[in-house]
Design goal:
Number of helices: 8
Order of helices and strands: EHEHEHEHEHEHHHEE
InterPro entries: NAD(P)-bd_dom_sf (IPR036291), Sc_DH/Rdtase_CS (IPR020904), SDR_fam (IPR002347)
Number of strands: 8
Bound molecules: 1,4-dihydronicotinamide adenine dinucleotide, the ligand CC/C=C\C[C@H](O)/C=C/C=C\C=C\C=C\C(=O)[C@@H](O)C/C=C\CCC(=O)O
Keywords: Fatty acid metabolism, Lipid metabolism, Oxidoreductase, Prostaglandin metabolism
EC number: 1.1.1.141, 1.1.1.232
GO molecular function, one term: 15-hydroxyicosatetraenoate dehydrogenase activity
Radius of gyration: 17 Å
Protein name: 15-hydroxyprostaglandin dehydrogenase [NAD(+)]
């Protein structure tokens, strides 16, 4: 699928992985709406991108994906300004075992909310053009990160939601593919400030450091390359693309019912 003229929405676009996803989409010809709670970083990035890619290519919308009202309004605005939505990158996420309800609210409920609201614009059965949704999960969506049980639970939830939504979409004729990217550790703010966010599991910080030493760290652009693959390769639906500094591979799941 060519990205020329396609319209993308990236949540958590102001920093880190979302910023790199926004950049790769723009580089490949898409128009991108940047959604983020961080207005300062979001506006400043958007201004820089407008200078580089043109005023009409990008748009910043202040949006907390925990809010139905804000998310609905941001998607409506995107559709009005750019004329529809073809790509949704559900990327916004936090890691905080202290405020664990908020972690569930953003990482899992936020992904579900944004997906359902975006379907109203993308679903071919509602007059949309179809398209593709890519969820930023994590390797912690495939196996346990012991210092972060709630973060692990949310990312397993995102992988399960991705696979079930992909199957629901193809069985229903929505014309929308749904995939997930599952990176190991990535050099971002989320990763840098981890130690004071483990709460009652802070005694497991050394074990986490050991995992970081084992896996190494990815750059945000390595994750953005995976996004590009999942968006452009029309054979990919219901996939979880695992990426570490050493390898990139599609996860094989055992289907218990079929
Ligand atoms: N950094 C890492 O090691 C890894 C991160 N991930 C996932 O990648 C995604 C992006 O994380 P990073 O770029 O590392 O984090 P980051 O902290 O650098 O950036 C996250 C962005 O999301 C925004 N955000 C947070 N809550 C929001 C909300 N309620 N509504 C809208 N925007 C919100 C933040 O303002 C920020 O701009 C997350 O889902 C994270 O779980 C996955 C694997 C590894
Ligand atoms: C401290 C947390 C910082 C960032 C959070 C983030 O999302 C990073 C997670 C990074 C790694 C998690 C790794 C978990 C690995 C496992 O549980 C293993 O069981 C391997 C899982 C899948 C391997 C796929 C395969 O090679 O077949």
């Amino acid at each position: 699928m060519s990205l020329d003229g396609k319209v993308a929405v990236v949540t958590g676009a102001a920093l880190g992985i979302g910023k790199a996803m926004t950049e790769i989409l723009l580089q490949n010809g898409a128009k991108v709406a940047l959604l983020d709670v961080n207005e300062t970083a979001g506006k400043s990035l958007c201004e820089a991108l407008m200078k580089q890619y043109g005023q009409e290519k990008t748009l910043f919308l202040s949006c907390d994906i925990q809010s139905e009202e804000q998310t609905k309004a941001a998607l409506k605005k995107t559709s009005e300004v750019f004329g529809g939505i073809d790509i949704l990158c559900n990327n916004a996420g936090i890691l905080n075992e202290n405020t664990w309800e908020k972690t569930v609210s953003i990482n899992l409920m936020g992904v579900i909310r944004s997906t359902y609201l975006a379907l109203e614009h993308m679903n071919k059965l509602n007059g949309g053009r179809g398209g593709v949704i890519v969820n930023t999960a994590s390797m912690a969506g495939l196996g346990p990160l012991p210092s972060c049980p709630v973060y692990t639970a949310t990312k397993h939830g995102v992988v399960g939601f991705t696979r079930a939504m992909a199957a629901a979409s193809s069985a229903s004729g929505y014309g929308i593919r749904v995939n997930a990217v599952c990176p190991s550790f990535v050099q971002t703010e989320l990763f840098a400030n981890i130690l004071d966010k483990l709460g009652q599991f802070s005694h497991l910080a050394d074990a986490t450091k050991g995992m970081v030493e084992k896996f190494g760290t990815l750059s945000v652009s390595q994750v953005a390359e995976c996004l590009l693959e999942l968006v452009t390769d029309e054979t990919k639906n219901g996939e979880a693309l695992v990426v570490t500094p050493q390898m990139k591979k599609y996860m094989t799941f055992v289907n218990t019912i079929q």
